[in-house]
Write a structure and sequence with these properties.
This protein is an alpha/beta fold. It has helices at 13-22, 46-56, 71-76, 78-98, 136-156, 182-194, 223-236, 255-266, 290-295, 304-320, and strands spanning 3-8, 31-36, 60-63, 103-107, 160-165, 167-169, 207-211, 217-218, 220-222, 243-245, 253-254, 271-275. The chain has a domain at 3-170 and 219-249 and 286-303: NAD(P)-binding Rossmann-like Domain (Rossmann fold, 3-Layer(aba) Sandwich), CATH 3.40.50.720. The longest helix is centred in the first third of the chain and has 21 residues, at 78-98. Bound molecules: guanosine-5'-diphosphate.
């Protein structure tokens, strides 16, 4: 019998990458995948969540649906991030239990770890201290998934687990001018700067402004790489404790390097400057992928500059077809 796999948040950055991967390199005849987005049901509502599960009757679930956003969106909406995500996660895991779902993989993030910590961060440190002030709402809601998973295991012997990706980017990201993360945020801002027809300033004299000092460090994973690892987690990883899905520590880059890579992918000829009046957020959140490497020692991550180029090319093509999510 075919395994029925439901992906919540199935039309977003990670969901669409998983869809691409299971329909190409990771296709299997004994699995049927369903990718659902917010139009299919309101996951903050328990009854609506039950109706969704009644429709798809999944055996396994990848739970990606969440209120998400970049640094500046989090700083303005901490309460909403906390409440919406707590509601969604509580409903999903309860309904998975009610429908006897045999395995759930939920998505956390390396940004939920304690702000004051030692590096690199590993899976045992999620609950060790206060998260960064900028995203305390999102962080506590996501940390509670790990608490719920533990509870469902101890009381009901459920295999509900979680993955902890570093910063993610790729096609189908949210390119909103106000809510986006740094890579889609910079891509849409640089596109607008290059294509600004209200000025005659030659491109060589145009200035691309990076928010903050450009010094913070981040590990970035390409959505297609994360998709492969999330599928592997669903199929093979049989522990309730979280697993960090991140690039290696030596692949950490500065925000300035990100800006220069995006500028190169656009072949931007102007200057790059830094607006240091804007927030930097966490200086770094370096995570260890030692646990992942113990299972997948040879996994090859896509080179950052290559994946940035793919993402910018995808953006340019989608923009020309008016198919960008903002
Ligand atoms: P974070 O990794 O959770 O902090 O979230 P982001 O993806 O929003 O990354 C934020 C970092 O990128 C901060 O250091 C920002 O100051 C910097 N940054 C530079 N330009 C931008 C931009 O256009 N959008 C966003 N979201 N961040 C930017």
């Amino acid at each position: 019998m075919s395994t029925r796999i439901l992906v919540t948040g199935g039309t977003g950055l990670v969901g669409s990458a998983i869809k691409y991967v299971v329909e190409t390199t990771e296709k299997r005849g004994d699995e049927t995948w369903f990718f659902v987005g917010s139009k299919e049901g309101n996951l903050t509502d328990l009854q609506s969540t039950r109706e969704l599960f009644d429709k798809y009757k999944p055996n396994k679930v990848i739970h990606l649906a969440a209120m998400v956003g970049g640094l500046f969106h989090n700083m303005k909406n901490n309460l909403d991030f906390l409440r919406q995500n707590m509601l969604i996660n509580d409903n999903i895991l309860l309904v998975c239990h009610e429908f006897n779902v045999e395995k759930v993989v939920s998505c956390l993030s390396t940004c939920i770890f304690p702000d004051k910590t030692t590096y690199p961060i590993d899976e045992t440190m999620i609950h060790n201290g206060l998260p960064h002030d900028s995203n305390f709402g999102y962080s506590y809601a996501k940390r509670l998934i790990d608490v719920l998973n533990r509870g469902y295991f101890e009381q009901h012997n459920r295999l509900f687990t979680s993955i902890v990706p570093c910063n993610i980017y790729g096609p189908n990201d949210n390119f909103s001018p106000t809510a986006s993360h740094v890579i889609p945020g910079m891509i849409q801002r640089l596109y607008n700067l290059i294509n600004d027809s209200t000025t005659n300033t030659p491109q060589e004299e145009r200035v691309f402004t990076v928010y903050g000092t450009g010094k913070p460090l981040r590990q970035f994973i390409y959505s297609h790489d994360l998709a492969k690892l999330a599928i592997w987690t669903l199929r093979e990883y049989d522990s309730v404790s979280p697993i960090i899905l991140s690039v290696d520590e030596e692949d950490e880059v500065t925000i300035e390097f990100v800006a220069r890579s995006i500028a190169k992918a656009f072949d931007f000829k102007g200057r790059i400057e830094f607006d240091t009046t804007k927030a930097d957020g966490q200086y770094k959140k370096t995570a260890s992928n030692k646990k992942l490497r113990s299972y997948q020692p040879d996994f090859q991550f896509t080179k950052f500059e290559d994946a940035i180029k793919h993402t910018v090319d995808w953006y340019l093509q989608s923009k020309s077809q008016n198919a960008i999510r903002e």
